[in-house]
User: Fold these one by one.
Assistant:
Number 1:
Amino acid sequence: MAYNTINFNILNLKSDEKVLDVGCGLGRHSLMAYRDYPVDVLGVDLSIDDLRQAQERVTDIQETPCQGALLFIQSDAYKLPFSDESFDVVICSEVLEHVPSYQQLIDELVRVLKPGGRLSLSVPKFLPERICWLLSDEYPEFAGHVRIFKGSELKEAVLNQGLSLTNKHSAHALHSPYWWLRSLFFKQGESFLPTRKYKDLMDWQLLKGGQWTEKLEAVFNPLLGKSNVYYFEK
């Protein structure tokens, strides 16, 4: 669970549901949904290089028999090539901070979501993200972030579409110090000793940390979580 930003247990994925992962990048959420649940998953991204890498990673999870289907396609998230009300679940994680018009993208996500379907969005949390921007003038361009979401700004944008908020949490508190180090010592690069050592700690957390790091993150997530995660129902 430490690897994913979206909590699939909260989404309550059901057998044979159709899941759309918009801005899937290297496919971490698409791959985990496909591996762990009997659902059909479609990952969409604009970057063909990211999609190729995502496809290559499918072989890493096929040691366990998967009951659903998985497909990656290239598409503009503003103009998804799907009919209205096509998907039971729509995921869009760490994307809305990158796009010029997040409201336009939200409109498109809601369009393809079935009535009764679930939508999950995640964006950088205000305080940890603001610290990154203050520590480095280069950080926003390096990260590709064009905005910082304030307060209930994102939540209200979705509620205005007629959806209801069903859950909310923060995630990845242990990631925030890494990005502060990365921002503070931006010119030294990620190989700078303090940054590299903390990156090693995060890798250990991912591979071997288990319940200990999940409990630690649960304590610090409300204040220092790198991401805010929202769950809605249409």
Note: The chain has a mean pLDDT of 93.
Number 2:
Amino acid sequence: MIRNMLSLIIGVLVGVIIILMMEFIGQLAFPIPPNFDVSSTENLSEYIKEAPLGALLFVIFGWATGSFGGGFMAALIAKEDLLRRSILTGIVLMAMGLANLLSIPHPFWFWILGLSVFLPFAYWGGKIVEKYRNNTV
């Protein structure tokens, strides 16, 4: 039981770390203007309206890869119900993504595309572990 709870916690942590790394790489590829105050929600809202498409897509790519990695790690650690742990990890990450979307205005297409990546990618991460375990037993 403890191992299954730890799988969710570690899966979410791994997912968040991957998302943060991908967003950092995205900021290297699409740098925020110098002297830009990122602590202001109003400034971030204005930036997102004018941000290059690639910068926004990089965030969604980060959410997808983070969900995949988190789901994979949750399933890898879990003793049972691998896919359930992966999907729960995806749900927690999706809730965090939703909180981000609610705090900073984003375009409508970003909401749809962004929220649609969490669960499938977390599931796929868990499915790979499940398939591997079934083939080695």
Note: The radius of gyration is 16 Å.
Number 3:
Amino acid sequence: MIIISNKNKLNVAQKGFTLAEVLITLGIIGIIAALTMPALISDYKEKATVAKLKKVYSIFSQVMLQAQAEHG
């Protein structure tokens, strides 16, 4: 009967994570984030550049259509 109660006490005491497990998990997440951030940033910069170019092209097209309408 004493052995069973000791096992129950051990089971109750081991419900959480240790500090080492939490730190290792956070370290792995940090490494993965550090590896993916450059790719995400370059994709964002590329999409921003494409959007700016489309806006400039649209403005130039409108100017050309307006000039044709005014001057023939």
Note: The mean pLDDT is 86.
Number 4:
Amino acid sequence: MSLVCRLCHAALERTLVDLGDMPLANAYLASAEDARSERRYPLHARVCEACWLVQVEPVVDPGVIFSEYAYFSSVSSSWSEHARRFAAQAIQQLGLSADSLVLEVASNDGYLLRHFASAGIRVLGVEPAANVAAVAVAAGLRTEVAFFGAEMALRLRDAGVSADLVVANNVLAHVPDLHDFVAGLALALKPEGTLVIEFPHLLRLIERVQFDTIYHEHYSYFSLLSAERALAAHGLSVFHVEKLATHGGSLRLWATHVGQGRPASRQLLELRAEESRSGLDGAAPYDGFTSRVERCRQSLLDFLSDARGRAQTVAAYGAAAKGNTLLNYCGLTATDIPYVVDCSPHKQGHLLPGSHIPVRSPGTVTENRPPYLLILAWNLRDEIIADMAHIRQWGGRFVIPVPEVEIT
């Protein structure tokens, strides 16, 4: 049976990259015993040649992935600061006040809503992971534990809940039923309200060979072109876009209901033109991506082989989902990288999925003094290098693996 696009329902016949069978990127293991029952699933990214949405097949039910989650947004200081700046910007630009309501879909641990709440603005979060939502609730942030979609948005609207600002940060990629989700966004938004969506930019993924951002919970990978098509299908119109440095290069779209009279900004027109020049509405940028991914893998394997030949240990920093894609695609284990450190206590003491590399606290690096520290969470490279700068004291160096090995 042929696969069809989740946006336009055309047949999916073109491959971006096939990464083989992979474990779930955030399914950290509590013990070696758990590793015996670990499952792997196909991870094959395809390109729709009708609407140019890149997507993976939904081989795992979202409830399995998201009902309990290992990622807590507030752990990253740079991401928390990113959220604080956006809240201040939105409050000023949209004139939000105590009479306003901000609804965030996939609100995680309240990393963003707390900034609106502290400004006296009403907030509501929707978060499917009960363990993560509990942190927000404990902080006094109203949060519903549920998957968001049209049915929930209708229930909220029937209860008189309609938002002046709806925020969906890094969640659009996480929904297998794209139309149900976007329909829910439109239903939850006041007629004159504003929708803000952030997501990693497909153009940057391709340009910078960010193949490790592909994993099962990321069902879709958006360009401005495909995102605008998804929103337009439900009466939403983008009027402005910002380019962000987060997650290796992201977009922040500002949208309203069609007919609100918001003209397209200069930045939006320029990005449309940039994507057109890059050929994202044709096959050329997608072809050849697999060979670039293979070169990236070989670059890392060559570096590790050289370090092993010189009896030099390579530890890693960042028990991140993207790191798990990279490690498993390269076939690496604790024999190659003895441990990874992470500042999240929710991951420490566990084993990484697939590779079964143990996760330890950052203090382990100081104790063991490895010559190299491989930064798996490369989107936070500046934050990590600053936090771990003391490895320079013993001649330690940082290694960035994507798009090819960089030693700094």
Note: The mean pLDDT is 94.
